[in-house]
């Protein structure tokens, strides 16, 4: 079993290393480090920078104080090694790490956790084969993963929702409370389809009359207290992953009473990924040494078409 | 003439028949027991359900039943559950519940019909047999494929949640499940073309620890679950697939995966309640989808 996993890693490594541009850049950096070419002879884009230096610049440019207790820390890899490129994404899944390595980006900035819990203590990961595999992939590919969650949300406007609003094309509909949008009248079903298309997701799940006319759309967060508060004024509430026994049942009851309300439950990814595209655009303003790329981790789910 | 069956006497009988020491409190949220309504209410009939939606409550009232035995709670929260805060969030504040038109109307519905809501979750799950698992297996018509049955151990419980299904593609298996359970919002991780046979069946909230446990069983191709946290169990499963250590996860939704267990609760109640009718009233799948 172990031998099989190692073989798999080697083949992934080859795939990751085959990006020729990336090899060239790495070679140049190595030569520069050995003093064989002067750093000045490298194009501006190819000066060295480490992950820790990038994070330091993020802290300087953020415009909000850094919190003492935060999830925004390095999760794995050496932050003091020069990086080859930056990937911004919603979640550092193994598939995303593989794609980032193949694109030549050794530094992954992820909004959500790498090791399957907000605080990395929800499960015992000793002897866990997936944990072992993911760690080994990061190390073998000399990658480093840093989480950017609390502070990107803390920025004003919230970096995640700024990106989401832009992706939806809704900047002009955004209200002063920052979480409500007044959009041209449409139906709940048409809005759900439009949202799936623009956010590039396929697993939205809805509660309410598909023909319901909607114009006031509110972001309802993840939890019932937020969603219920948002529902007071809105026709439709967007949940970017909600607990089913909470928010979903509340909307089912609202509809049972004939209240003209709808709920669109997006995959968590669909509610926040666009915010990390926004993050990549923002980073390019003050990180010029290496390429900065947004790579979507993608909607994890598919829903089969309803059978006839 | 014997004493009438009150809600508190019904609860006493449940405690006596549950087969384990009854726990009425839990540190992290609402416990089992009478959740709403006066304990001395005379029971006119019992409805069991996954969650007491407005629709379920109205159907119970229409059929003359004033006592609801449910897994989830009427006001959309399991309580604070501090250790799980980032999964659950806090309960809605009372001020918001008092203002909200839906919550107010539901409270009025419960009070004006003198309904009693009894929660049964932790003690039911702590029984020797996992009746939620058995109910779901039977609803899927998978009981004949239960591996524990072949081993001569017909108990449904952790360690015995594996099924040897006729080999098929993931896509076909999902279509079969949709047809059998009549559901729409089934979410899937994995390649629809992959061939699957050995299934691990779980229900309700799906945690990473559940996946770690069932994936230790050799040869599991597909895991069935209810509702994951998307930065926990479903990410873990995506990584299992990317590492080629597993093929597929099928997420039925919490209600769909737990509701057949409420049928099991009704069958169990009938073994010690004969004075009043007992009926399973499924809440039904809450979602629709576009594709």
Structural write-up:
The complex is a heterodimer of chains A (308) and B (291). In chain A, strand 8 (236-240), helix 10 and strand 9 form a beta-alpha-beta unit. Chain A has helices at residues 2-17, 20-33, 51-62, 94-102, 129-140, 150-154, 159-168, 188-199, 224-231, 244-256, 268-283, and strands at 74-76, 86-91, 107-112, 144-147, 180-187, 205-207, 213-219, 236-240, 262-266, 292-294. With 308 residues, chain A is an alpha/beta fold. Chain A folds into two domains: 2-156 and 273-294, Udp-n-acetylmuramoylalanyl-d-glutamate--2,6- Diaminopimelate Ligase, Chain: A, domain 1 (3-Layer(aba) Sandwich); 172-268, Udp-n-acetylmuramoylalanyl-d-glutamate--2,6- Diaminopimelate Ligase, Chain: A, domain 1 (3-Layer(aba) Sandwich), CATH 3.40.1390.30. Chain A contains eleven helices and ten strands. A five-stranded mixed sheet of chain A has the order 1-4-3-2-10, with helices on both faces. In chain A, strands 5-7-8-9-6 form a five-stranded mixed sheet, sandwiched between helices. The radius of gyration of chain A is 22 Å and the shape is globular. Chain B is of the alpha/beta class and 291 residues long. Chain B has two domains: 7-126, 3-Layer(aba) Sandwich (Udp-n-acetylmuramoylalanyl-d-glutamate--2,6- Diaminopimelate Ligase, Chain: A, domain 1); 131-256, NIF3 (NGG1p interacting factor 3)-like (Udp-n-acetylmuramoylalanyl-d-glutamate--2,6- Diaminopimelate Ligase, Chain: A, domain 1, 3-Layer(aba) Sandwich). Helices cover 36% and strands 17% of the residues of chain B. Chain B has helices spanning 7-17, 54-62, 85-88, 94-99, 101-112, 122-125, 131-139, 147-150, 170-181, 208-214, 233-242, 254-270; strands at 33-36, 46-49, 67-70, 116-119, 162-169, 187-189, 195-201, 205-206, 222-225, 227-228, 248-251, 278-280. Chain B has a five-stranded mixed sheet with strand order 1-4-3-2-12, sandwiched between helices. In chain B, strands 5-7-9-11-6 form a five-stranded mixed sheet. A two-stranded parallel ribbon of chain B has the order 8-10. In chain B, strand 2, helix 2 and strand 3 (67-70) form a beta-alpha-beta unit. In chain B, helix 7 (131-139) crosses helix 12. The model of chain B has no long low-confidence stretch (mean pLDDT 93). Chains A and B meet through helix 4, helix 5, helix 8, strand 6 and helix 9 of A and helix 2, helix 3, helix 5, helix 9 and strand 6 of B.
